[in-house]
Amino acid sequence: METNHTPRAIAVQILTQILLQQGSLSTQLNRYQDQVASEHQALLKEYCFGVCRQFPKLNSLALSLLSHPFEEKDTDLYAVLLLGLYQLIFMKTPDHAAINESVEACRALNKAWATKLVNAILRRYQREGNQLLDNLTSMPSVEFNHPKWLVKRYKKHWPDQFQQIVAANNQHPPMCLRVNLNRVSRETYLSELGKLGIKAVIGIHSRSALYLESAVSVNQLPGFDDGLCSIQDESAQLAAEILNPNVTENLLDACAAPGGKTGHLLETLAQSSAKNSKDESIAEGKLTAIELERWRLDKIESNLARLGYSAELICADASDINTWWNGEYFNKVLLDAPCSATGVIRRNPDIKINRKPADLEALVGIQQTILHKVWQTLKPGGYLLYATCSLMPEENEQQIAAFLASQSDALEVDLATLNPHLLKLFSDDQVDPLGKKVSHGYQIFPRTEYQDGFYYCLLMKDA
Length: 463
Fold this sequence. Notes:
Distance between the termini: 55 Å
Order of helices and strands: HHHHHHHHHHEHEEEHEHEHEEHHEHEEEE
Number of strands: 13
Structural class: alpha/beta
Strand content: 5-15%
CATH class of the largest domain: Alpha Beta
Shape: globular
Helix content: 40-55%
CATH superfamily of the largest domain: Vaccinia Virus protein VP39
CATH architecture of the largest domain: 3-Layer(aba) Sandwich
Number of helices: 17
Radius of gyration: 23 Å
Mean pLDDT: 93
CATH topology of the largest domain: Rossmann fold
Number of domains: 2
């Protein structure tokens, strides 16, 4: 691909697609970021993530400055305006540069007629910005920097955790590593980071987690290319610890992309293999990973290759078991179901733009179908771990309640059933709890400096 495009031009292109609901931020970045020189890709991400993260506030401000909203065919101009406002408010770009770049962006789009309009709006904000924002602070979208519907849901479901959730969602996410304990101890890897001047602290809940004080390129991480560590949030790391697989078991990772949990399960299997036979190869081939989209499956494959593990990777719809299941039952299943991702908004800030209340109903239906179908592949006496990165009860505890009511051979069991080391973690008497027990399962809440929001529930098939 050509790499002579400016970060601003590609950012406008990506943001336009997101505003038109033509794909997620991660999908669009994967598609377009190679059109920008590698040294400018960090700026491209800052533009895109920043505008999405601050969208509720920027959108309210922009609409108050426009006498008429842009037509759909001029959504690209609205992206230019939002990016200009983001630079003026949140970046260190000199005001004159942010305004001039925005005006020139209109010309680059062959819409010179909009140059005076964009110039006037941004200069007005330059003069009256504080007053304009003060006039909007009573709006929930501005006060909390979240869509109004999401503010209502958070307040309704989690009144005691509301401020914590909103604060975490509005921040840059911390960079969390998962140390491959099959290759190196966490303490040794922490020491290796220190030798390179990379400051980190040990995670609170997962025994393989390290948080970096400041994010760095993976190229700076010692042994990254050799599989000594991976990038994975601490909440997500708990999946493999809860399932605690061993070398004798046949595992399924349904809806596996981007493959972080797949890799962690294989690391855990390799540890089990080493303990039992000193032969890591026994763990290989004991895990099947299903993913619907081919490009995501390719990403899983490359991640596993970096770690030095392999699995049976199948491109299929997990709910259509007739297309991929050979009839061999699984001992343990991880179902990290498609969800609203309302617990990881800081990592997917475009959710603030394109997630709608109606999406939840559709997602609940998809989750229900996959759960019932994948359950059929589980061996009697086996375990299924249902997981989402959602904070919405209808996707989590209510979904499980409906499943248990309709599935006579399904039993909910404690999350520490397969790993007694987790007993304290999920207990109610923690001084600084990870989350809280709900009617079914356990809800984890995002924290500013630590874990993402997540939900887990462990089910056993009655033998």
